[in-house]
Amino acid sequence: xTGAVPRVTASSDAAAATQAEISAEIAAVAxxxxxxxxxxxxxxxxxRSSILRHPTKSLHQxxxxxxxxxxPVFGPQDVDQLEADLTIQHTGEPIGExxxxxxxVIDGDGRPVAGQLVEVWQANAAGRYLHQRDQHPAPLxxxxxxxxxxxxxxxxxxxxxxxxxxxxxWRNHANAWRPAHIHFSLFGTEFTQRMVTQMYxxxxxxxxxDPIYQSIVDPKARDRLIAAYDHDVTMAEYATGYRWxxxxxxxxxxxxxx
Length: 258
Fold this sequence. Notes:
Helix content: 10-25%
Shape: globular
Distance between the termini: 50 Å
Structural class: alpha+beta
Strand content: 15-25%
Largest sheet: 5 strands, mixed
Order of helices and strands: HHHEEEEEEEEHHEEE
Radius of gyration: 20 Å
């Protein structure tokens, strides 16, 4: 005889909300959509900490000349090609499904953006980050750090070899889980041009339950965050392949974290 699963009830603690309550909130917000909303709502109630993340006051003005003093300079002499392979950074093989993620960085007119610094970070195959704040009971992989970078080619292309990340729990609400994803950061020629976004994998059952993913209320805009399996990218007997393009401008630009 199995024991009854205890029911978690909502309380003054926002993280105590049930998945059913969060899903109901997601549906209620989606019903308010009018027209296209390609970017996430900054104040999105189902994503509990969004109230602490989005600005409620006017932005501080920065001196553009002072900012330029700290502008990054990236070139072939600064980024080694081996940094794009997250599976060779240690003495042993990391555990998990090897994957290749590739695509192009383009502008709103489809023109390639060359020389763009692309950085990635991710959880390991068990859904654990190598970070002191990630203490949930999943194993760390001594052969996987989960960070890499590359520069886009003349055609705007990038390519990473890595391990498919696992989903992981987070404390937005009771029994909350994030879909598997890879974080992407792109730099232009200065820090003020930074863009941060996330790439997801097709067919994830957690999409409908995740407030961060659902904070983009336009389904077509959400779908642009999902990579496509590409058999031509897949390496025989070694790694499966995914293709994901990043659009920096225009009406079909890729969602970014503000």
